[in-house]
Every structure is written in C-alpha cells, then in structure tokens.
Amino acid sequence: MQITLVDDDPKMRQQLASYVGRFGAENGSCFELLSFGSGDELLEDYQPDHDIIILDIDMPGTNGLNTARKIRQLDNEVQIMFVTNIAQYAINGYEVEAVDYVLKPVGYYDFAMKLGRALRKVRQRRPDRLVLNAQTGPVQVNAEDILYVEVMGHYLIYHTAKVEHQVRGSFKEQETLLKKYHFSRCHKSYMVNLVHVKNIRSQGVILHDRVVPIGRSYKELLMEDYIAFLHG
Fold it and tell me: What secondary structure letter does DSSP report for 189?
C-alpha cells in the first residue's frame, strides 16, 4: 500500500516516515513510501495511484488545503490526512473529504490511531486489491481482473486479460487466500475466477476467449462452487 508524505520540513518527513515504519512493524504491514517537499511538487505529475496522502497544511507555494482541492479534481479515492500546527486550519478538511488531521508536534500514538483509520477506509473502498511479489517487482492487481491462476513448477502465473504476472509461491496457500475472491480449483494446476466463467463444458471452463482445463476429480466441486456463486 502506498503512503505519500508531503511536508516542506525534511525533519518532519523523516519523523512521519519513522512512524509509518513503526506502525508497519507493529501491525505486520508493508508500505511503499513516497516523499514530497511541497504540494506543487506532488501536483506536478499527479497520478491517481496513491492510497493515503499525509499532507502538511502550512507550506510555501500551494498550501496543503489548496493542494488537496486540486487532488480531488483528479482523484476521488485517495485518503487525505492533514498535519497542521493549528486545528482551525483542518476544519475545512470536510471540503476535500479528509479522513482526519494530526496536530503538531506529532505524537506516535495519535498518529498511529488515525493512520489505522485511514487504512481501514482504503480497504473498504478497495477491498479486492492484491499485492503480488512478481519477478519484476511488487505489483498491485485487483482480484476481479485475474481470470485464472496456473501453477508451473515452483511458480504461479496470474493471468489477466492483458498481462501475466509470474510469482514464486505455494499453490495451496493461494487457493486458500483466493477462495474469498470467488476462485475455485478446476484442475491440479489451475484455479479460475468464477466472476469470469461463461460456461462449464466437458472440454474445459470457458472464460471469455480462453478455455481452462478441468480435472475429472475437480469437476463436481467446481460445479458446486459455481452454482453457489450464481446464487450469491
């Protein structure tokens, strides 16, 4: 999950980064951290791929509130958390749907509580996002975009409509993890996303323009899973 720190004070950015690291260590989470020294720097080439932005309000150039207003024109999903010296400044946060604010000097426990709240908001809005440790590096994939998963040796191949992600891992562990995202085992080497199943025939599972093999011993359970899925 990506957390972005925006503050013109390098020491404050360093402190917030250490707090995020401590929070991750205490909660078994891993975060990608981005850091910017101003709102203008963040906005220069903004892409809507941030999860949480921790944003100082009182900055030179475009202040934090105006930065947040511009972000909202580009991104309705990102969670914004303000950091400020004066609580009154943060009251206007409702305009930009800010999740919370933290007063300086920033204490760890207050920060951790509010960061946890922001993370819960992210997960509520994007509940089906998976992080795959692919050979090319970590990638984020929506579970719904995965058509099927194939095992090949010690690697798992996640097939989407456009790309494939190759990940070293346990097929059994991924089968357990992906069960809640409507995946079902159809073969000793394949599991399919029931969201994309168009038909189940003797020659295989029809997924749009692809056919995934069915193992004889898996067919009955696959049919049960598919009927249950169709009935909600």
Answer: T
pTM higher than the cut 0.85: no
Q: Which among 198, 194, 200 has a CA at the least distance from the CA of 229?
A: 194
Packing angle of the helix pair 10-27, 108-125 (nearest 10 deg): 70
Q: Which CATH class is domain 2-125?
A: alpha beta
Give the Cα separation of 13 and 8 in Å (integer): 8
Domain ranges for the chain, please list them.
2-125, 129-230
CA dist., res. 171 & res. 13, Å (int):
40
Render pLDDT for 91-114 as a digit per residue (tens, 0 to 9).
Answer: 777 789 999 999 999 999 999 999
Peptide bond into 105 cis (omega under 30): yes
Residues 195 and 84: their CA atoms lie apart, in Å, by 45
The architecture (CATH level 2) of 129-230 comes to Beta Barrel (2.40)
By the 8 A CB rule, do 211 and 205 touch? Answer: yes
Q: Do domains 2-125 and 129-230 have the same CATH topology?
A: no
Residue 150 to residues 91, 187, 226, Cα–Cα distance (Å)? 50, 9, 19
